Amino acid sequence: MEIIPGVHSIPVGSSPFMGFFAPNVYLVVDSEGALIDSGYGDEESVGSRLDYVNSFAELRLAYILITHAHPDHLGGARRIKESTGAHIVLHPAETRAADVSADKLVEEGDVLTLDGASLEVLHTPGHSPGHVCFLLKEKRILFSGDHVLGMGTTAMSPPQGDMAQYIDSLRKLLDYDIEMICPGHGPPITAPRQKLEELIQHRLDREQQVLNGLRRGKTTVKELVAAIYPELDSRLHQAAQGQVLAHLIKLEREGKARPRESAGYTIN
Ligand SMILES: [Zn+2]
User: Fold this and answer.
1) How far is the CA of 154 from the centre of ligand 1 (A)?
2) Measured in angstroms, how far is the CA atom of residue 126 from the centroid of ligand 1?
3) What are the start-end ranges of the E strands in the chain?
4) H-type alpha helices, 121-189
């Protein structure tokens, strides 16, 4: 499916991973091509994506650009590389979590070129230490992986997840002139600045709720989760605990909260 000229989103048919959490894989087509993320590694996901890439008869796939080394973004990389010869590109901080070796390591500010198109690497730690976004400069499109989602909230699971870095990485994107965000999950975001500001505000509001909970004598992550998310579906408890713990670690670093001797945290 072509989102705008030269930028495609490659869907997977009746994959078991369809639905809310289905990962998006994008293809930038110029004289050469680049995939952004590679989806899961199962037969159907990889097969659909390869069929899509191969439907461009003349296209040479140069890169598989990985935003971060989680299985829904990296899983298909090895097999797509074997089939196309494309180079897998990763940030060095993600290589330990990856089950494939990178052909090229990239850091903040590096630019990958496809003749007419250039993709700038923006290091956006928070969801994971070596998370990167790729900015397609000519079209001002940001491929945001799990840093900014088209719907829902980015998971923050310490020690991999770091709330302070995450908020800083959201603020950093405000400095860029971005026309559209193509996220790792969910639909494209056509009002990037508004979305980024909302996400930052949402995290700051949550942080305030954590502080309020501590003030009211809630000390453990579980008590804070129960206070902040009273109606939460039990399947989401673990995710919510990660978010709250990530806030507590940030507050501790800032001197606003500290661990109690027995268990949990208290206000400073
Ligand atoms: Zn992820």
Assistant:
1) 8
2) 10
3) 2-4, 7-9, 26-29, 32-36, 60-65, 87-90, 104-105, 111-114, 117-123, 132-136, 141-145, 180-183, 257-259, 265-267
4) 163-173
Measured in angstroms, how far is the CA atom of residue 260 from the centroid of ligand 1? Answer: 31
Query: So what's the pLDDT on residue 98?
Result: 74
Number of domains into which the chain is organized: 2
pLDDT at residue 22, rounded to an integer: 85
Produce one character per residue of 233-264: b if its CB has 16 or more CB atoms within 10 Å, e if not: eeeeeebbbbbbbbbbbbbeeeebbeeeeeeb
pLDDT of residue 14: 52
Looking up tokens 């159907």 gives: 44
Tokens linked to 238: 């673990």
Specify if 195 maps to a domain: no
- What would the pLDDT profile of 94-110 be if each residue is shown by its tens digit? 998 777 899 999 999 99
- For residue 69, how far is its CA from the centre of ligand 1 (angstroms)? 7
Residues of the chain with pLDDT under 50: 16
79 and 131 share one domain: yes
Distance 252 CA to ligand 1 centre (A): 25
- 177 and 118 within one domain: yes
